[in-house]
Amino acid sequence: MTEAKKVSLVLEDGTRFEGKSFGYDKSIAGEVVFYTAMTGYPESLTDPSYTGQILVSTYPLIGNYGVPTDQMKDNIHAHYESHKVHISGLIISDYSSEYSHWNAIKSLGDWLKEWKVPGLYGIDTRALTKILRMKGSMLGKIEFEEEPVDFYDPNKENLVAIASTDKKEVYGNGEHKVVLVDCGVKNNIIRCLINRNATVIRVPWDYDFTNEEFDGVFLSNGPGDPAMCEQTVANISKALKIEKPIMGICLGNQLLARAAGAETYKLKFGHRSHNQPVLLAGTDRCFITSQNHGYAVAPESLPADWEAMFINVNDNTNEGIRHKTKPFFSTQFHPEAASGPVDTEYLFDEFIENIVKYKKGK
Predict the structure, then answer these.
(1) Is 18 among the catalytic positions?
(2) Which residues fall within 8 angstroms of residue 143, CB to CB, at 6 or more apart?
(3) Which of 26, 45, 180, 219 can bridge 248 by disulfide, Cβ–Cβ 3.0-4.6 Å?
(4) How confident is the model over 43-97, as pLDDT tens digits?
(5) Exactly one of 77, 250, 274, 323 is catalytic; which is it?
(6) Is 101 annotated in the active site?
């Protein structure tokens, strides 16, 4: 490995960490957040929900299994969660320039350079994470000495408009027609629907899909503040009146809640990990889930005909909602995982079952 450039991570409170560059040598700014997953960095880095964010990995060794091939299947990348790297920057403790994996074709550093994303190693990520837990997610900047940059708050922008598709696309040829509202969708959501005999009609975040022919509606994950997505919420409100089955994930949970009349709020440092325990409301069933979000639903603001479906065991925040009588539900976590535990993938089956029941009852 050639001599690495020195580079700094500067937080908005003035805290400075000195490290070395292993990605693209460019100064950038964004929101600094941490995630605790031990594996799955190709999936995490291509997750559109990280748009505008500088990602800190708490697991010390990153890069040892490289980056997989970019082959396609069903018109989407087989091993990535989107077509590009979405993070603004990556902060790790120790970088492995040597990699070994049967499916790897390049190093993590080379991949970051391709997408012009800076990466820093040699930073005390334990100390950094403690600051973020105590003070909350903070604005920060990766700064090379010769290239100063100003702080930037991505939450002031409509990040969904950046992450969403700009045209309607169709995947699969299944029996069930599902409109997928793309707010920054992960590819494994599309895979999970195709594998369950669905034709997926992917539409932009602000597209009025209520005039489409469909059997169910799927509300995707995505980045940023759900309050920015007023047009999406308006379209979901129209869909609720149609009463066809609806399922949402992550941002989709927040948007469904807002369409129902509930409120959302920003968490102190969010949930970004593969190990978040959630409890199915009214039962003793606990699931380990994959999560990536900085906002949450205020459960006390749910209307009387809605209820909490899942609850986070760590902090009692909302992890999903459902209508008491109609086929509408959503989760704050990721049942499709990628990467992460698949404990809750059965929820896709429940969504398809709701569609089958609806079609039989027409």
Answers:
(1) no
(2) 7, 8, 9, 10, 27, 149
(3) 219
(4) 999 999 999 999 999 999 999 999 999 999 999 999 999 999 999 999 999 999 9
(5) 250
(6) no
